[in-house]
Amino acid sequence: MGKDQRVLFSSTIFGPIHSRRLGVSLGINLSPNDGKVCSFDCVYCEAGYNSQGKGTTGFPAREKVKYLLEEKLGKMKDAGENLDVITFSGNGEPTLHPEFPGIVDDVIELRNQFFPDAKVSVLTNSTKIFTPEVAEALKKVDNNILKLDSGVDETMRLIDCPSSPSFTVKKVVDSLKQFEGTGIIQTMILRGEHEGKKIDNTTEDEISALIKAYKEIRPREIMIYSLDRTTPEEKLIKVDKEELADIAARIENETGIPVKF
């Protein structure tokens, strides 16, 4: 898969799809429909590298997101369909949308109206949690799923390729503590190579560093997972289920925090 890979979602509201971790999920894409906007450039991102460009459509307006979601939820309810979760995901980092906090309020309102038993989830790379308005919005959702792929700066930079040179593991871990007992930390476990450099966050040092970070953050849950789809970096290796199970068991044993994989 090269740098000309197209984005996965060409609409603001997509699905519902079946998520192995979240159930029947209706997606919200707050990035442009024809490009990618993200503060990370992860080697494993299903939407490809940021080099494909931001597209031409821009961020969808808050009013448009609300209208499209209300329309979709209404149709689903009329058809007697099931819905487990509404998930902010898509072609980039949802919290970069300038109206993200207001959109969260709209989504919660519509969820309560149409599918009150459904959860609202946000998949975020944790780069905007330093902004108070974004952090407060994340505290309102049912599943605030925050990324931490390594407890080691060098490895984090190899895997996630953050756009900000000031983004460090210590900085993000310190800020993730504000979600103690409520946040869900999500970690991609993988091996491989990128631009001639070895990637492996399964080593003893790496797992120990992650455990140390998890203990400091004290989330309500930890999710670890490995590659599931084609990635922009071709030299990545999926960690098998058995090894993930061993890693999950060790993390849960040493932190006392439930781990899903």
Radius of gyration: 18 Å
Detail the poorly predicted runs.
1-6
* Number of DSSP helical runs: 7
The fraction of residues in strands falls at 15-25%
Largest sheet: 8 strands, mixed
How far apart lie the N and C ends? 26 Å
Mean pLDDT over the residues: 95
Shape: globular
Structural class of the helices, strands and pairings? alpha/beta
H-E order: EEHEHEHEHHEEEHEEHE
* Helix content bin: 25-40%
Strand order of the largest sheet: 1-2-3-4-5-6-9-11
Number of strands: 11
Q: Can you characterise this structure?
A:
This protein is α/β, with parallel strands linked by helices. The chain has seven helices and eleven strands. The strands form two sheets. The protein has an eight-stranded mixed β-sheet. Strands 8-7-10 form a three-stranded antiparallel β-sheet, covered by helices on one side. The chain is globular and about 50 Å long.
Helices and strands in order:
Elements lengths: L12 E7 L3 E7 L32 H17 L6 E5 L10 H15 L4 E6 L7 H7 L4 E5 L5 H8 L8 H8 L7 E5 L1 E5 L2 E4 L3 H14 L3 E5 L10 E3 L2 H15 L3 E2 L1
Parallel strand pairs: 2-3, 3-4, 4-5, 5-6, 6-9, 9-11
Antiparallel strand pairs: 1-2, 7-8, 7-10
Helix pairs in contact: 1-2, 2-3, 6-7
Keywords:
alpha/beta; globular; single chain; disordered N terminus; 261 residues; 11 strands
Brief summary:
The chain has 261 residues and is of the alpha/beta class. The protein has 7 helices and 11 strands.
